[in-house]
Amino acid sequence: MPCSTRRSLVRASNSLAVCDGSKWTRKYYTKYVWRSEVPLSLTEDFKTVSEVKKNLRSVLEQIKNTGRPVVVTVNGKPDAVLIDVETYERKLRSLNLVGFLAGGEEDIQHGRTRSTSTFLKEFKRAKKIPS
Q1: I need a labelling partner for 100 at 20 to 30 A (CA). Which of 12, 43, 93, 122 fits?
Q2: DSSP of 84-106, one letter per residue?
Q3: What share of the chain in percent tops pLDDT 70?
């Protein structure tokens, strides 16, 4: 089945079906893995802490204009990543959703489930909704 999105990730039991924009491939993981939406530029998106201190406003404009994160290095090693607020909020919402889903998956694994009809009967009874 072809896929049309630039980045897709689907959970399927203990494996993931990953879309690279043209085809689906299956990869085996123990948890969700998200790839960056926008690839990093090795020449523009890695800055030393000194560069960031000297040019903070231009670095922030770069992040806003390109939508790419900036990796801040200390002694030649990555130390921090700067991202724009919109990207941060989107990733935070995604992480929260993954947390909720993980709780549901744990309930399923431990047999803490019930049928839809049973749930609806209990819900209607609890809320005093006539059948």
Answers
A1: 122
A2: -HHHHHHHHHHHHHHHHHHHHHH
A3: 71
Architecture label for domain 38-83: 3-Layer(aba) Sandwich (3.40)
pLDDT tens-digit profile of 15-72? 555 555 556 555 554 444 444 455 778 789 999 999 999 999 999 999 999 889 999 9
Report whether 73 contacts 47 (CB < 8 A). yes
Q: What is the pLDDT of residue 67?
A: 87
Q: Find out whether 78 and 72 touch, Cβ atoms under 8 Å.
A: yes
Query: What span, in angstroms and rounded, lies between the C-alpha atoms of 50 and 44?
Result: 15
The whole model's pTM is what? Answer: 0.53
Chain position carrying tokens 């200390």: 74
Write down the H helix ranges in 6-127: 49-54, 56-66, 85-109, 116-126
